Amino acid sequence: MKATPLSNCERRFLLRAIQERKRLDGRQCYDYRNVRISFGADYGCCIVELGKTRVLAQVSCELVPPKPNRPTEGILFFNLELSPMAAPGFEPGRQSDLLVRLNRLIERCLRNSKCIDTESLCIVAGEKVWQIRLDLHLLNHDGNIIDAASIAGIVALCHFRRPDVSVQGEEVTVYTPEERDPVPLSIHHMPICVSFAFFQQGIYLLVDPSEREERVMDGVLVIAMNKHREICTMQSSGGIMLVKDQVLRCSKITAVKVAEITELIQKALENDQKVRKEGGKFGFAESIPNQKITAFKMESAAVDTNDVEEQAEEIITKAEPPSEVFTTPILHTPGTAQIGEGIENSWGDLEESEGEEAAEEEGESEATAFEWQKMEAEDTSTVVETKRDEPIVVSDSEEEEVVILEPQELPRKTRAQTTPKQETTTKKAFNKRRKKKRAAH
């Protein structure tokens, strides 16, 4: 699946915003997105978030024979994977040009800069050395993959602990973490990449471009530097030609950003080590914000109800006269009430009222049979007075169901041909009219 291309309107909008020194996420031209580092339960596992770009890093090790041309040095292996989970444009199992370029840049940043002491990884010269493998997985793509991957890689390497080893003669013993404490890697410095996007042949410059900004940029410059202001690697791609002043300006910005990120990495490592020593909770589950989805609940709040009766009376007097007489508002205790918590039911028990209605209907069944004949006569007279072409409507204003009887099918003086449903509906209407008459008297 290919990535959704930008429309011409989006492209013009982004370029116009860049000309006006504005960015979609509200940052300034030289602002970096927020960097968040979280560690896993095991050593050497971490997730780095650069804005919405997320990279998972995992470091592992094993004992292998060394390379013939370097018998006293360990082996470093780096691998970056771009999965469709990060962006729909990435295809699994395919080495795209972007992936090849990113892997080469990471190797130049971490291996060629000699940030790790490979000689300390040697166990027996020419026979056994440690092979350190760094796997990087892009979880979400929102631009600037190389910066997030470089930060995640160096953080995972600093956080990793390899098993302790002892050599007695030709026998090599690898100790478990329970037997001996694992040993950290020997890291000389921490190279970090900082990316710069150029627009309109280098006239406009942005630090840490987002995914949409990368689509409209003319070229990019990546500078890898440590906190000592030593440039580890530099790469420029795209159809732009940079002058010396532009490169010097980018290197000065890189020095400031690298110093800030390095300090953030050291604080994160110190906090994680402190939590592990104190026996606290750590891992990805603890780093996730505690956000629970619960049912909606309104907290109780005090409400003044001293003048509720007066307000209710004013509303009733100003309103139109109702068809029925309403009683005055009932308040259990004047003073304060609470919103969000229920109070005592003032309508009584609904089950008892329903039972009373059922008893009344059963007691009135005999009287209903006597008055039913009278209602038949009234309905018959209504039928006689209506025209033959008009239908007879038997309904009530409070009844939900309306029954329409055609005059050709209904006899004048008998009700034996009506359906049981029509008979039940008519009985209900009669009982309600009878109750209204009683209430009026």
TrEMBL record:
One Pfam family it belongs to: RNase_PH_C
One GO molecular-function entry: mRNA 3'-UTR AU-rich region binding
Biased segments, Basic residues type: 429-441
Cellular location(s): Cytoplasm; Nucleus, Nucleolus
Tree of life domain: Eukaryota
Main location: cytoplasm
Biased composition (Acidic residues): 349-365
Domain Exoribonuclease phosphorolytic: 32-163, 189-253
Stretches the record annotates as Disordered: 349-441
Gene Ontology BP terms: exonucleolytic trimming to generate mature 3'-end of 5.8S rRNA from tricistronic rRNA transcript (SSU-rRNA, 5.8S rRNA, LSU-rRNA); nuclear mRNA surveillance; nuclear polyadenylation-dependent rRNA catabolic process; rRNA catabolic process; TRAMP-dependent tRNA surveillance pathway; U1 snRNA 3'-end processing; U4 snRNA 3'-end processing; U5 snRNA 3'-end processing
Membership in a protein family: Belongs to the RNase PH family.
Name recorded for this polypeptide: Exosome complex component RRP45
Gene coding for it: Exosc9
